[in-house]
Write a structure and sequence with these properties.
By secondary structure, the chain is α/β, with parallel strands linked by helices. 39% of the residues lie in helices and 13% in strands. The strands form three sheets. The protein has a seven-stranded mixed β-sheet, sandwiched between helices. A three-stranded antiparallel β-sheet has the order 10-11-12.
C-alpha cells in the first residue's frame, strides 16, 4: 500500500473521523440504580447526590468547600462577583474566552500579560511587572492541565495584597508538587464538561477555603436567594442537576486511573513525535503532573517543513480531528480588540504559541494502535512536506471554530 499522505491521494490512515476527545464514562449499569431513584422520587435537583458529590470533591481536593455549579463559566462569574473584582485584573490571553468574559460581566478590567514560552502558562515575572495601583486581582490558568506557577503567584499576591483565582477548567487529574490542584489562591474553578478527565456531562466546581466565598457561590447559584424568596444580590440559575452529580461521583472514582492512563498516552506521543524535527511540547515541572486535557505541540515551520496550518489540513485529510487552541488569543477576539488596540505587539510569546500550537486527539482509554496511527500520519506528512505544501496551496482553508477548553 502506498504510504503517501491522504492529501496527496493516499488512503486515509483512519477510515472514519477520529474525534478530538472521547470521554471515559462509566457503564450505565453502575449508575442505573441512582438514576432510577431520582426518576422515581422526582428529586432531580438539590438532592443528596449533589451534597455527596460536593463532600467527596472537597475531600479529594483537600479544601473546606467544593461548591458545584452548572458550568465552570458561571463558577468563575460567581467567584469574581463574590470577591468584588471591580478594578484591573491581570489575566493571560492564551486561554479560552470563558476565563475572561465573566470579568467584563462583573465590571472588572482585564489586563492581558504574556505567557512563559515553555509552560504556556502566565509568566509570574510579567504579572509582577504589570501591577499598578489599580490592580485588584490575578487570574491564572492551568493550561491544558499543566499546573501554573502556584507558589510564585501566591507570593506576588501576598506581596501586593491581591486576590488570586485559578481557572482550573483543565485541572482534574493535575498534580502540583504531588497534590491535586484546587487548594491555592482564593479559589480554583473547575470544569466537568465532556472534554475533561472528570465528567459530569456539564458542570463546574468552585473550590475554596474561604467560608464567605463558598456562601456567596451557594446563594448565587440560586439567583442570590438566601432561602426567603428575596435576593441578597443579583445571582444566577447555576444549579447542578442530580443526574450530573451521579455521573460526577462515578467519574471521580475513575479519575486517578484515567489520569495515569492519559499520561501514558501523552508519554507515547512525546516519545514518537519527539523524533521528528520542528516539533516541541509543553514543559511540565518534574514534580508536577499534567492532566493532558489536551495533548498540544508547537510546529516550527523551518524544522518540520510545514506550518501548523498546513499540518492541520493534512491531518484532517487523514480523518484526524484537531484543534488550534487558543488561536486567536483572547486579546485578538472581536469582543476585545477594539478595547485593547495596544496589545497588537505586546504579547509576543502568546501570539507565537497561539500561531504554532496544535492539539491532537487524546483520551484516557486511547489504545496504542490509535497513538501509533496518529504519529504515523504526522510522520508521513513530514516525509512528504514539499508535496504536501503544494497540495495545501490548492485547497481552501478549513478552520475549526473555538471549542470549550
Amino acid at each position: 500500500m502506498s504510504d503517501k499522505p491522504a492529501i496527496l491521494g493516499g488512503t486515509p490512515l483512519f477510515s472514519e473521523r477520529l474525534p478530538i476527545v472521547q470521554p471515559t464514562l462509566p457503564d450505565y449499569e453502575t449508575i442505573a440504580p441512582q438514576v432510577r431513584e431520582i426518576l422515581a422520587t422526582g428529586m432531580l435537583t438539590k438532592g443528596r447526590y449533589l451534597r455527596q458529590f460536593e463532600e467527596r470533591l472537597a475531600d479529594y481536593l483537600g479544601v473546606k468547600h467544593a461548591v458545584c455549579v452548572s458550568s465552570c463559566t458561571l463558577g468563575l462569574a460567581l467567584t469574581y462577583q463574590g470577591l468584588g473584582l471591580k478594578g484591573q485584573v491581570i489575566v493571560p490571553s492564551f486561554t479560552f474566552m470563558a476565563t475572561v468574559h465573566p470579568l467584563l460581566w462583573v465590571g472588572a478590567e482585564p489586563v492581558f500579560v504574556d505567557i512563559d514560552s515553555g509552560t504556556w502558562n502566565i509568566d509570574p515575572a510579567r504579572v509582577e511587572a504589570a501591577i499598578t495601583k489599580s490592580t485588584i486581582a490575578i487570574v491564572a490558568v492551568h493550561n491544558f492541565g499543566n499546573p501554573a506557577a502556584v507558589a510564585e503567584l501566591e507570593a506576588i499576591a501576598r506581596r501586593y495584597g491581591l486576590r488570586l483565582i485559578f481557572d482550573a477548567a483543565h485541572g482534574f487529574g493535575s498534580l502540583y508538587r504531588g497534590r491535586p490542584v484546587g487548594g491555592s489562591g482564593d479559589a480554583e474553578v473547575f470544569s466537568l464538561s465532556p472534554t475533561k478527565l472528570l465528567v459530569a456531562g456539564e458542570g463546574g466546581v468552585v473550590a475554596t477555603n474561604r467560608d464567605d466565598l463558598a456562601s456567596h457561590v451557594r446563594v448565587g447559584r440560586e439567583y442570590g436567594n438566601p432561602g426567603d424568596y428575596g435576593s441578597d444580590f443579583p445571582g444566577l440559575n447555576a444549579r447542578m442537576p442530580e443526574f450530573n452529580a451521579i455521573l460526577g461521583l462515578k467519574s471521580l472514582e475513575m479519575l486517578e486511573e484515567n489520569a495515569r492512563r492519559r499520561n501514558r498516552v501523552a508519554d507515547a506521543f512525546r516519545k514518537q513525535l519527539g523524533r521528528l524535527p520542528g516539533l516541541a511540547f509543553q514543559s511540565i515541572h518534574p514534580e508536577d503532573r499534567c492532566s493532558y486535557k489536551d495533548f498540544s505541540l508547537l510546529v516550527d515551520e523551518r524544522g518540520f517543513g510545514l506550518t501548523r496550518d498546513e499540518l492541520a489540513l493534512a491531518l484532517q485529510a487523514e480523518n484526524v480531528d484537531i484543534r488550534k487552541y487558543h488561536d486567536p488569543p483572547v486579546h485578538a477576539h472581536g469582543a476585545y480588540r477594539h478595547l485593547y488596540p495596544h496589545y497588537s505587539d505586546a504579547l509576543p510569546v502568546t501570539d507565537e504559541v497561539a500561531r504554532r500550537s496544535l492539539s491532537l486527539p487524546v483520551w484516557s482509554h486511547m489504545d496504542q494502535a490509535i497513538v501509533e496511527g496518529i504519529c504515523h500520519a504526522v510522520e508521513r506528512i513530514h516525509d512528504h512536506a514539499e508535496d504536501v505544501r503544494r497540495a495545501v496551496a490548492e485547497c481552501s482553508p478549513a478552520g475549526s471554530g473555538p471549542q470549550r477548553s
